TrEMBL record:
Pfam families tied to this protein: DUF6328
Coiled coil: 22-49
Transmembrane segments: 82-101, 122-144, 150-171
Organism the protein comes from: Massilia terrae
Domain of life: Bacteria
Keywords, sorted A to Z: Coiled coil, Membrane, Transmembrane, Transmembrane helix
Keyword Membrane: yes
Name under which the protein is recorded: DUF6328 family protein
Amino acid sequence: MLNRARHAAERFQLCAIEGAIVFAYRASMEKQKTELEKLDEEMRNIVEEARVIVPGIQARFGFQTIAVFNDRFADLETFARARHTLGLGMVVIAIAMLMTPPIDYRACAGHPSRRMARVASLMIRGCLVPLALGLSLDMFTVLFVVSKSVVLSICAAAATLLQLAGLWCAVPATEGKHNPGQ
């Protein structure tokens, strides 16, 4: 009888140990699943942000491209045409940076990694730099066409760049300081 009790106690301990291991494994899997779900949600948000931004940049790219075929474009000074072309190139870079995260997410078949989410977030924010430069260069070209003043065109381009940098970089940075939990 004592042997049976000892054997039952040993089996109970073994079951308890196995149960703890199974419980720990299950908890680990749930935590991992939760992390994957968080990454998936983060990537879906990033892709949605890109979807919202893309049409505006595409329209901007179209207008920039059409300008080249305008008769007045050929009459522009070489430096003004060069700045417009450089601005067009900046918008192309912004589009490429903006489109990379959704393409990468699609390529991974909806199984994002922490690194992918971090890089995607940097790409979305980073595309604003060439976009701001491209818009500023276009502002230079437009003001030069209207005023024929290089100084005024440079001032307008610089003001545009400062305004975009302030709205796209400084405002969000300030907001992050006011809401540290987010």
